[in-house]
Each structure stands twice: as C-alpha cells, then as structure tokens.
Amino acid sequence: MATRKTIRLPFLLLGFKAYMQATGKNALRLAKMARRASARTGISIVLIPQFTDIAVISKEVSIPVFAQHIDPIEPGSYTGHVLPEAVKEAGAVGTLINHSERKLQRDQIEAAVRRAREVGLISCVCSDSPELSAAVSAFNPDMILVEHPDLIGKGRAISNVEPEMLAVTLKAVKTINPNIRVVCGAGIGSPEDVAAALHLGMEGVGATSAIIKATDPCRVMLELAQALKSSWVGKRTAVLGGQR
After folding, report:
1. What is the radius of gyration, based on Cα positions, of the chain?
2. For site-directed labelling of 165, which of 175, 200, 206, 214 has its Cα 20 to 30 A away?
3. 101 is catalytic
C-alpha cells in the first residue's frame, strides 16, 4: 500500500470529478473505502477529489491525494486561479494537468509541469493522442494519463477499444523518456479492462464512473485493485514520490 506521499506501481487513479456522490461527506466516505481497498490489496490508490475536499481527505486518510488541476501561476493577483502552492499546502502530493475536461495549451502544460516540479507535486499530464503524448514527454512530467474523450464515462474501455493507440503512445513516450510512467483511463471499469491495459504495457489505470456511480463502490475498487495486482506478477515495481 502507498503512504500519503508515495505511489507504488501499478496504481489506480480514482477521479472524483464533480459528482455529488463524490462531494463533501460522500467524498470522505469514498476516500475511506479506497484506504481499505488499498490496505487489503497492497495496491496504491490515488484519490483525485475536488479542491474543496483535498484538505479534509488528506488529513483523514493516509493514501495519496492529487488535485484535479493547477494553473501555471506564481503567488499573486490571480483571483479564481488554482495556485500550486495552495493545493500542496492543503495536502495534495500531485496534480492532474490538461484533463480533457480542463484543457490547456501546450505552453501552459509545460509551465504547469514546471510549477508542479518547483513546489514538489507529482505531475500527471493527460493526453488524447500519441502525438501530444510525445510532445509533452519533452516537458518531463512524472506520468502521462492516456485518455480518449469519446470513451470517458461510456463504459467502453480504451484498453479494449483503442489498444493500438496505447501501444503507439507507450513506445513514443518511453523512447523520449523511459522514466515517465504511462497509464490509461477512459471507460476502465472491469478486471478485464485492467488486465488488457497492463498487458499492453500500462503501469496503472484511471477510473471514475465505474466506481463513483456503483451501488457498491468498495467492491469495484477491490476488483480493479486485485486485477492490477494479479496482472503485475513478475514485473518490476517502483515507487514515485516520498522524496518530494
């Protein structure tokens, strides 16, 4: 299991988005379920709640918390922006950058990765194409999360529908920087989806709807985490964070 500041491969990124099932008290309830699932399986589960829930969750559970976004700004007059130092102070150990629902220009992505590095946040850049993944690899983020916007929340897993995209992306990223961790999201919802992703070389998966909207979210978390564990047998593990 990961501690609050470390993430062990393979891992599950759990996005909370802005669902009521993952807001306020419900967000904390999900976080505690994730903590139990992580403890039972030994798999790192990274929580990505709304900004308003970061501080409470990071205080209550001892597993990693990411912000959903940061703006590439310095402290100052930026009303309505998300300051990297602020999410770090709230307890986040990392952040998403350029999610398909919060897109940035390439120069903004580069600046956000740089700001994350400066304040000690793990950076996870979201990408919807092999070309973009290759381009942002030059910025040296810690992770690239490969998604296809048309599959998000549709129950059709990218690891089954777009396996060629994942294979091409993985090769492009690792050729530029083998230390970047490549994971996939969009439609991941079953152990079979997870197994297919890791078979293609992914080092983790991201999920939201399949867990957040489930009748029994804890059961789904356990199933996905166990699939990560069983699909990783024989592969070398590694740890992110801890020294930041």
Report:
1. 16
2. 214
3. no
Strands (E), the chain: 6-8, 11-15, 44-48, 66-67, 94-97, 122-127, 143-146, 181-184, 204-207, 239-241
How many helices and strands, by DSSP H and E, does the chain display?
A: 10, 10
User: Quick check: is 99 catalytic?
Assistant: yes
Place of tokens 């983790």: 204
Token output for 84: 């990297």
- 69, 110, 147, 148: which one is catalytic? 147
Encode pLDDT of 99-146 as tens digits. 999 999 999 999 999 999 999 999 999 999 999 999 999 999 999 999
Angstrom distance (rounded) from CA 39 to CA 102 = 31
Give the pLDDT confidence of 206-216 residue by residue, as tens digits.
Answer: 999 999 999 99
CA geometry: angle at 133 spanning 47 and 109, to 5°? 70
**DSSP 8-class letter at 206:** E
The residue from 99, 148, 203, 223 that is catalytic is: 99
Q: At 188, which helix (H) or strand (E)?
A: none
**Alpha-carbon distance 183 to 115, whole Å?**
22
Here the tokens at position 9 are 């491969």
Tokens for 121, please give them. Answer: 């946040």
Separation in Å, CA 174 to CA 35, 95, 179, 189: 31, 21, 7, 26
Ordered structural domains, the chain, with CATH: 6-241 (3.20.20.70)
pTM exceeding 0.90: yes
